[in-house]
């Protein structure tokens, strides 16, 4: 990806994070957001797994047809990036690329534990900051990320 495009992508991702802040996030909100993500994925016949964590607790998980146990491993690795950096896993990877390197080469974190690939997005609550992560795995990283963002946008419009 060209340097100019990476910087443009970073701006887009940062704008998404500023815009997609929730007024609250309860167990019921987790169920509603997760169910919305599953419905969007089913419409597209997307072979994904969906996961929502808040404060270290898994509140929602679904594995759709075509997903595999590998998707659960990717979910955990991408979610850990959100938990550590407080921003989208796709954004973390893009920031490393903007520096002319990769997350794997420069983060000093175990790539078996952390993955700065698209698909995990911070759950941010007004006045509280990042409290969790919503994650999708099973599509190419940009598509995983877009699916999560689309669901959060639709959820906020409700």
What is the second-level CATH architecture? 2-Layer Sandwich
**What is the number of independent domains?**
1
Biggest β-sheet: strands ordered side by side in the sheet: 1-4-5-2-3
Instruction: State the helicity in percent bands.
Output: 40-55%
Radius of gyration: 15 Å
Structural class: alpha+beta
Shape: globular
* Structure annotation, total helices: 6
State mean pLDDT (0 to 100 scale): 97
Low-confidence runs: none
- The CATH superfamily is Haem-degrading domain
Number of strands: 5
> What top-tier CATH class fits best?
Alpha Beta
Main sheet summary? 5 strands, mixed
The helix-strand sequence is: HEHEEHHHEEH
CATH topology: Beta-Lactamase
How much strand? Answer: 15-25%
In whole angstroms, the N-to-C terminal distance is 35 Å
Protein name: UPF0303 protein ACFPC0_11285
InterPro entries: PduO/GlcC-like, PduO/GlcC-like_sf, YBR137W-like
Family: Belongs to the UPF0303 family.
